[in-house]
């Protein structure tokens, strides 16, 4: 065994200055770590960075150029598969120009509407895990896609707290699915969905992207003008105070509150509860400025109702 002196031994070590700098790995300081695709998510590896266009309010829009580059296609008509996993997308309106698309992977984005995919008649697989789909009413846009067989929609706000109701509602409206959320669909589930699932017969209200409020249309305006006033005032004390608690407001005393519609049908109560649940769900998505606007609006509305009640009592 050879022995080395201090200088000879030091010579066997590469000087610190001559070491090659280590390449920074994904997830190190200065670079956000991206989550890994789930098995079966049609994306075994992270796709390359996607070139998008930032629109209003910071929205990330999927562009024609980005689609062609990702799909390695010359024209939109020739795009069959599109993988935009984890690309911070909010606007996918370009999907309206993809008539022959068969497989779409949009998991881990910020998509809130499925309407742009309503005309993708050849679509067979759709991956939307971890997005911002707010309501199961968005399924209305997928009901006329005859070839859709695989849908992954889990980890979206629309899934709600009841997994059984969620799965039954999806299968009732999309009975041709063979796999939902990476689980095979059985004949027993399809039969049970006819009983436990909720049928969706209308699309969700359109939203104005500029201000974030629902967009009024002719039919909704007509309904509002012909609807009895009692439908708008049909809230119990408990439900009113629940909304006020969410907004950080003091509850209304029982002696200062009374219902304007003492008699109500089961249908009106169900409609009211659906509206209330939708409001509470959407509130979770609002920032401080949005909550302040709701706080002021609700306060003014309650004051007007209480003032009207006092006038009727006189």
UniProtKB/TrEMBL annotation:
SUPFAM superfamilies: L domain-like. Coiled coil: none annotated. PROSITE patterns: LRR (PS51450). GO terms for cellular component: ciliary basal body; cytosol; Golgi apparatus; mitochondrion; nucleoplasm; photoreceptor connecting cilium; photoreceptor outer segment; plasma membrane. It comes from the Eukaryota. Keywords: Leucine-rich repeat, Repeat. This is Cilia- and flagella-associated protein 410. Residues 1-58, 204-230, 250-269 are annotated as: Disordered. GO terms for biological process: cilium assembly; cytoskeleton organization; mRNA splicing, via spliceosome; regulation of cell shape; smoothened signaling pathway. Residues 163-181 form the U2A'/phosphoprotein 32 family A C-terminal domain. Plays a role in cilia formation and/or maintenance. Plays a role in the regulation of cell morphology and cytoskeletal organization. Involved in DNA damage repair. Residues 250-268 have a biased composition (Basic and acidic residues). It holds the Pfam family HIND. It comes from Chrysemys picta bellii. PANTHER family: CILIA- AND FLAGELLA-ASSOCIATED PROTEIN 410-RELATED, LEUCINE RICH REPEAT PROTEIN. InterPro entries: HIND, Leu-rich_rpt, LRR_dom_sf, U2A'_phosphoprotein32A_C.
């Amino acid at each position: 065994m050879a022995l080395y002196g201090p200088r000879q031994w030091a010579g066997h070590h590469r000087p610190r200055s001559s070491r090659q700098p280590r390449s920074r790995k994904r997830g190190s300081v200065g670079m956000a770590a991206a989550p890994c695709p789930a098995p079966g998510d049609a994306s075994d590896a992270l796709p390359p960075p996607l070139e998008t266009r930032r629109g209003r309010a910071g929205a990330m829009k999927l562009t024609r150029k980005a689609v062609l580059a990702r799909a390695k296609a010359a024209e939109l008509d020739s795009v069959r598969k599109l993988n935009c996993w984890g690309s911070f997308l909010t606007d996918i309106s370009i999907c309206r120009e993809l008539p022959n698309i068969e497989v779409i992977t949009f998991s881990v984005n910020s998509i809130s509407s499925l309407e742009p995919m309503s005309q993708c008649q050849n679509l067979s697989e759709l991956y939307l895990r971890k997005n911002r789909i707010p309501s199961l009413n968005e399924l209305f846009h997928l009901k006329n896609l005859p070839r859709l067989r695989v849908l992954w929609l889990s980890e979206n706000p629309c899934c709600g707290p009841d997994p059984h109701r969620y799965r039954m509602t999806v299968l009732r409206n999309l009975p041709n699915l063979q796999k939902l959320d990476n689980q095979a669909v059985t004949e027993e589930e399809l039969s049970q969905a006819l009983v436990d699932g909720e049928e969706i017969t209308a699309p969700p209200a359109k939203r104005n992207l500029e201000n974030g409020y629902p967009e009024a249309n002719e039919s909704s305006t007509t309904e509002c003008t012909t609807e009895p006033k009692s439908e708008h005032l049909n809230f119990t004390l408990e439900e009113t105070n629940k909304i006020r608690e969410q907004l950080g407001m003091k509850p209304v005393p029982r002696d200062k509150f009374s219902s304007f519609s003492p008699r109500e049908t089961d249908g009106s109560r169900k409609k009211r509860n659906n509206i209330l649940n939708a409001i509470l769900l959407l509130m979770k998505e609002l920032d401080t400025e949005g909550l302040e606007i709701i706080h002021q609006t609700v306060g003014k509305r309650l004051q007007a109702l209480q003032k009207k009640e006092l006038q009727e009592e006189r």
